[in-house]
Structure prediction request, 81 residues.
Amino acid sequence: MHRTEIKALFAGVTNYIDSEVTVAGWVKTIRDSKALGFIELNDGSCFRNLQVVFEASKLENFSAIAKQNVGAALVVRATWF
Prediction:
């Protein structure tokens, strides 16, 4: 697993399009509905947070992720759009 810093993602947005990236950090905010969830993730590499969108139809553990609290440490592997 190669972890990409959030700072690197923001610095080279076009370099990662349609690539699978792995980020790790702490939850700043988290909210969900029946089908979608949103996580603001920060790894300390920059002041900006990364918004992670997750879908119930694509994740078996959607409800477990949605129950996480602010401050939880997460590793996210996803396709960058």
